[in-house]
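Reviewers of the previous submission asked for a worked example of the structure-prediction workflow described in the proposal, so we include one complete record here. The input consisted solely of the amino acid sequence. No template or homolog information was supplied to the procedure at any stage.
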Amino acid sequence: MRISEADSGDVAGLARLLWVNAHGEEPTRPPDTFAGELARWWADRPGSHLAYVARLDPPELVGMAWVALVPRVPRPGNLGRMSADIQTVFVLPEHRGRGIGSALVDAAAEHAIRLGALHVTVHSGHRAVPVYERLGFASSPQLLQRSPD
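From that input alone, the workflow returned the following structure tokens.
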């Protein structure tokens, strides 16, 4: 298995993973239609959303983790402040339990930190919290959330 940053040649595989992840939860377009939509969406966000992918031989995508890089208001002496958020981590069910998701999250978070992110957040389901904690994520009393009513 190889973990690498995705590029435009991975859009069809990413679309397939996103489609499998969402299938049955919300209305979805066919995977080939969605691939074109994803390509346009990603092209409109250069540098703000990166994807890391897990590949097997042959180079089939079996997992992904996205990281959104969010510019922050500058401060005197620090014009390039940013934070990052891990989003849409998914591994095909038949490949789970092998550390692929952890490797993807670790690669995405480390990349964001190398780019200068002041912090990396994740919104997790209950079952995945221990995984994120093993990867160095911790709860923070200063990180608050407001949901729509």
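The chain has a mean pLDDT of 92. We consider this example representative of the routine output the project will generate in years two and three.
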